[in-house]
Sequence to fold (444 residues):
Amino acid sequence: MTDLPRKAAARTARLAALPLGYAGRQAVGFGRRLGGAPADAVLIEVQQRTAEQLFRTLGELKGGAMKFGQALSVLEAALPDELVAPYRDHLTALQDSAPPMPTQTVREQLARSLGDDWRERITWLDGAPSAAASIGQVHRARWFDGRDVAIKVQYPGAGDALMSDLRQIARVARGLAPVFPGIDIKPLIEEIQARAADELDYRLEAEAQSAYAEAFAGDPDVVVPGVVTVGEQVLVTEWLESPHSFAHLIRHGTQAERDHYGRVFVTFLFDGPNRTGMLHADPHPGNFRVLPGEGGAPGRVGVLDFGAVARLPGGGLPSAMGRLIRLALDNGAEELAEGLRAEGFIKERIRIEPEQVLDYLAPFLEPARDETFTFTREWMRGQFERINNPRSPSFTVATKLNLPSSYMLIHRTWLGGLGVLSQLECEAPFRSIMEQHLPGFATG
Fold:
């Protein structure tokens, strides 16, 4: 029926083998060190070979395995360059594609979700997918009224595979942790698990995409394809003609292109909640498409995949967030600590040095201190290493702060956005973007 591995035991076995493979390579590496090979060189080689196996396995299994891999790929800029360089292709491949499901399976899913008369509405269907991801793949097609459309088809059994994979990855997370120095794997998995049900619901996704398409209709910088129709496991939207995603831009774009598209990208993340009351919470490069402008000039950004969306209780980003960041930028350490306590970030009996809190918030503050900021992989790696170093004051702060549930997806999206900007290595007017689009920031 489908190429998505259906037997839980088979999927579990492949995921469970990942830390075992790492342990085996460690043993070989130990032997090589005894033979005189430098310890650092042996460790890097072990990590590289393990990462190659990991990302190859995650991409082939799809489901929760690939979803986890895509989440890691957003933070690629935080990994040491000597470690990440050999398997960067595996990471960017996860951002753009995965092995396709058979054409017959696609037709069965269309009949199940749109009815047996689906051929009357879809007059032409490309048998090869134009894109594939963790729980579905996309085919180009033609609607009965002549429009080109994108048909997103969910893999049969995707829900069961997604949750089973995430449970197994959670069990083996400790064994995978050494491959990703500076990245805490456990909370990343927990967040993916928490939002998995929403991502499987194409009707919720259609609702969010429709709201964004309406809000950004006619926008000079951003294009969101409109929704044509939706079924339980099929979503039909307008086709977006775009030659490349941000993954290609990261590898091949000029500095001017990366600066332009980086500015549009970060503006969209901040401005989207103001227009829709929802936050696009899946900022990996495969979801953002490059639409070239006329005469070779930089053009607009096409935004796809609204399966992971935070529906914000107050109809936008919390104004307290903007006020607190402005306080931090103005070096109001004491006032900042009081504000964080009032918002529930610091619990009543917890004592934290205000200056250490400022240091911990550096990844969010440094880009907004000057008129423009140049994001780099080196900067992102430095932030992660500092925050995750047990000897650093920032590490102590991280163990004491409490992240309210309403901020969890916002926090992860912001970190993911910084990761994409650092992969782009772009220069952006981050401060002015926050002043225009982050509630509470301009007034402090």
